[in-house]
Amino acid sequence: MTAEKQRLIEDRDKKKNWRQWGPYLTDRQWGTVREDYSAKGDAWHYVSHDMARSKAYRWGEEGIAGISDDQQILCLAVAFWNKKDPILKERFFGLTNPEGNHGEDVKELYYHLDSIPTHSFMRMLYKYPHQEFPYATLAVEAGKRGKTEREYELLDTGIFNNDRYFDIEVSYAKAEFNDVLVQITIANRGAESAAIEVLPTLWFRNTWTWGHGSYKPEIYLDTKNGMKSTHEQLGTYYLYCEAKAEAIFCENETNTSRLYGHSSPGTFKDGINDYIIFDNPSAINKIHKGTKAAFRIDTVVEGRKSKTFRLRLSADYQTKPFLNFEEVFNQRLRDTDDFYEGLQKNCKDADERLVQRQALAGMLWNKQFYSYDVDVWLKGDPSQPPPPTERKRGRNHEWEHLNNADIISMPDKWEYPWYAAWDLAFHAIPFAMIDPEFAKHQLLLLTKEWYMHPNGQLPAYEWSFSDVNPPVHAWAAWRVYKMDSKLQDGVLDRKFLEEIFHKLLLNFTWWVNKKDENGNNIFQGGFLGMDNIGVFDRSSTHLPTGGYIEQSDGTSWMAMFTLNMLRISLELAKQNSVYQSLASKFFEHFLYIAGAMANVGNKGINLWDEEDEFFYDVLHLPNNDRVKLKVRSMVGLIPFFAVEVLDEEVFQKMPEFTQRLDWFLQNRPDLANLISRWGERGKNQRHLLSLLRGHRMKQLLKRMLDEREFLSPYGIRALSRIHLDNPYRLYANGTEFTVKYNPGESDSYMFGGNSNWRGPIWFPVNFLIIESLERFHHYYGDDFKVEYPTGSGELLTLREIAIQLSRRMVSLFVKDADGNRPIHGGDLQQRNVHFENNLLFHEYFDGDTGRGLGANHQTGWTGLVAKLIQ
Questions:
Q1: N or C terminus: which one in the chain shows less Cβ crowding within 10 Å?
Q2: Between the CA atoms of 371, 374, 376 and 379, what dihedral angle is there, to the nearest 10 degrees?
Q3: 540 has a pLDDT exceeding 80
């Protein structure tokens, strides 16, 4: 029982709220949908990076290395100034989707190095240049580049040449659940001395301006080195600063004069910035109180040296706030080491341990307080101008019931500072390794009445809650349930499983009613998370050809969903026989889907192509003609995910289920023949449910494991490399539509152009491939072997192939024989001692080189590497 596990138990049992304080600030609140009150939903321009320092946010707060309480009442973050920038560094800079040649992109270097589930210890690193930050250069150069060129990154500017930058490490350690120690270490990596101002900043989220209450909290100077904050709900907190520092106060209010040309009295959110940058004393409060405050530490750090500054945020008044600081801080670091020592006891490779620990740190740092009441957002606030009427028919108007105010795992708190349904399901897996209670809470959250639509749909993401993500929630629920049981020595949380199962019944019904166009068990669903993988924008309701797409992946995802629900039904039936009938329902529904895939609309069209031996989407034209879209992509591999293995014991203990199953198979032999080897028992008397009979599975594996097609040195590509020299082309209404293999960034504007599924490697689908191989091996055993890689002549079991694919995925991050990490590409990170062991967990990876691409802090689903290492 480690100290951290004891804290988790105290938190679970509500003895101490150890999770009350955490990294719950976002990295970007500007440019989000929830802060956008424009007529036509122009979120990127309604609040820009330039406006952010002057605009009081309605729904949340941002900051660098910041923390807040779990209702984001009081916030603490750190700002910096190198004496050369035109503004304080209070927030991370990046380009908007229209500005970037591959969509939105943060242009900063920061790394999440350590954390534990209660956030009793956290550590992150920010690299801040000595020279003026190249804001304009980054934007101008990006504007010159096209879709076929790489993004222009901060490293490309040369701003870090000759080590002319600060490594700023911000660490937090909790002395108690409401007593947080803060340590800021500024290391000058350059040879010459450099000046820097460090501004630990405390502020209240603005809850008083909007007309829902008049109470306004306050921060004031209580002692020479201590501030006191008071709030009617949160209570009293003190912030102590050990260093000699000037205390500065202003109000967290919008500067309407700067933003809109309307003068108003008082000081504003940008007051501290204007006081320091412009030497404007009128920008701050004359008396030492306000709703935003900072300690101004003005210092010079000698070349190759460092300085450390210490603060303490505590609910209790401290007469000697730094007396036991070092002792507590070092103890929390030891607690963190002990926690990971237990997790990594079977991991002998030091570099893999480093990768796993930073992956989990990234997961923990990417928690965010997410607040969004759609009804209030659409109608506007009582004290604010009424929003444009167009909004009542615009984005998310169908989701008036949605009212979120929770700590949620984000994909990436800068590039994607909002939850996404299928991302969150994958996040739950690495979280279950270290904090299964939080993992279960996250999965349940999206099924609550204030999230899930009354019709049963799960909210996709704030840009369009009505978009459709793959239905992987049931899969994640089952996996977390089993992982939790192992961590709890076999104790099963059936309450969690039963609660989420009932809500997922509603979601399943929504899929059947809304995404099966003709009621024939062939599903659409739209883009289904794989942005530009198709010939067209698959979410469009108006295809250029007319008609709609009968999706191989949409149908296969539903087959997987059905089997997940079958498995959960059988588990719940162990204690309540009522669930046997539901198990029968899902068993039969799976067979109907299998039958539909073999005969689309009873027209003799099979989503499986016998000639190519691959699954394809089918374009259903207005004249009822159907055209197979012969793109060899991940779409055709998704059927692999629909696999379940049932032990003979199930049939012995579930008589009602077994009786109905036997009747159905006898009366529908046409459907029984479609599923794999049902009548043949496998290893240890097991039965297989799968869309793939032995021959089809082998043919899919033959393509998937072919290095000329899908198999990359670093995992399975999302599009076959055969389309490099043989692009797929479709002609419609005088227009040519092309899909070509592209291993790097997207070269199209489909879905914003910030993600690419036409060649790169993506962790979520690779993880499901690996799990599916293990499930098939569970049935077939060691006697079933296939060639790996295709053409090599070497035969491996399916489990051995799963292990090999896992190793390829992990190899993206660990150093190779030459000491290089593929994720870094050829950048400075490879050889510089201050870079090489600081990892970024990208959204996706180059299909040929492994270089990290897309959002570069998307530990979210890329955090699955932690589970692969385990």
A1: N
A2: 150
A3: no
